[in-house]
Amino acid sequence: MFIISHIEKNTFRDSVYLMRLSSMVRSLEGVEGAEVIMGTDHNKKFLESGGLLTAEIEKEASANDLVIAVKARDKKLAEEAVEKALEELNKEAERGRLRGEFMPRTFETALKQLPGANLALISIPGQYVEREAHKILDAGLHVMIFSDNVPLEAEVALKKKAVEKGLLLMGPDCGTAIINGVPLAFANDIRKGNIGLVAAAGTGLQEVSSIIHNLGAGVSQAIGTGGRDIKASVGGLMMLQGFQALADDPETEVIVLISKPPDSQVTDKILQQLSKSNKPVVVCFVGADLEEIKKAGCHVAATLKEAAEKAVLLSRGEDVKPTEYEVSSMQAVLSEHKSKLTGKQRYLRGLYSGGTLAYESLVILNEHLGGLYSNIA
């Protein structure tokens, strides 16, 4: 096995594009692993964990540099994979030039090119986010921050400014949103409808919105807040702001809130505002005290699936009955797989694509199994 790396100095591409490019490189013949990624300290640790960190990247790459790391069967295949990645990077730049596109390098020039814009998505290294987000908020635009590694104090300052201006500040580390029917970042293409979502959980928002779509209903808006929003240090500022936006939105008739359990003082603030709602509200704080939520006059959901199902019933004006998580519908599948196990197979392992999905499973399984542990917070 051979590992080769390459550094493109002072070159930036957003993480969504780089993930697609990495996937393409990994699909090449003889390639066992590959990443095209920015050279931040966090990403270097990620490369190290995957066995792709080279001395060149460790010593010479900075957060402003784009790095390519490839593990292949031999040196020739690794070099060819790096060349293919560079070729694709150059093609992307050339396509923009041939189309005659002007690619603005600052927010100010971008706004001049699209003066009617009212929302900006930020995907840049975390240390630069606060400066740019303040500019955007001061210009009167809503902001979605896809970037992570943004200092907590910066998030609090930005969200306080957004609240003062009546704007949304989604994130940092907000990977999913649907605004006016347009899916942003990792959001799915969901049918337009009358159910509005606010979530401090990206995969939770994806799951609930997808189930709503599969049940034949649709989403008016889906607002991500970033996972830290429900911590006491942030105070649920954007969960509350997002809820109020949906409460004022004439196209939203049912509101759904999704997150892991907020800190207690944040829960109190949220439930106090929900209790005043003239629209039905479904609350899925996975693992939280359901009775406390019921007292606020909300419909409670113990699971993401239940939240979606109740929201759809409410959106159709149908009665919602209290439900509990049941495994009876899966009993035949469970029995079939259990029959294939040997007597020595005693452990359950789970690998999840999102922290909220893993957390939900831990909550459910904790009722039936002991000794559970995970690498999620």
Q: Would you kindly provide a written description of the structure presented here, covering whatever features stand out?
A:
With 377 residues, this protein is an alpha/beta fold. It has three domains: 2-98, Alpha-Beta Plaits, CATH 3.30.70; 104-170, Rossmann fold (3-Layer(aba) Sandwich), CATH 3.40.50.720; 174-333, Rossmann fold. 41% of the residues lie in helices and 18% in strands. It is built from 14 helices and 13 strands. It has helices at 15-26, 41-49, 55-60, 75-98, 107-113, 129-138, 152-165, 202-214, 237-248, 264-274, 290-294, 304-315, 331-339, 355-365; strands at 2-8, 31-38, 66-72, 119-122, 142-145, 169-170, 176-179, 182-185, 192-199, 219-224, 254-259, 281-285, 299-300. The strands form four sheets. It has a five-stranded parallel sheet with strand order 10-9-11-12-13, with helices on both faces.
Summarize the helices and strands and which ones pair or pack.
Elements: E1 2-8, H1 15-26, E2 31-38, H2 41-49, H3 55-60, E3 66-72, H4 75-98, H5 107-113, E4 119-122, H6 129-138, E5 142-145, H7 152-165, E6 169-170, E7 176-179, E8 182-185, E9 192-199, H8 202-214, E10 219-224, H9 237-248, E11 254-259, H10 264-274, E12 281-285, H11 290-294, E13 299-300, H12 304-315, H13 331-339, H14 355-365
Parallel strand pairs: 4-5, 5-6, 9-10, 9-11, 11-12, 12-13
Antiparallel strand pairs: 1-3, 2-3, 7-8
Summarize the structure.
The protein is an alpha/beta fold and 377 residues long. The chain has three domains: 2-98, 2-Layer Sandwich (Alpha-Beta Plaits); 104-170, Rossmann fold (3-Layer(aba) Sandwich), CATH 3.40.50; 174-333, Rossmann fold (3-Layer(aba) Sandwich), CATH 3.40.50. Helix content is 41%, strand content 18%.
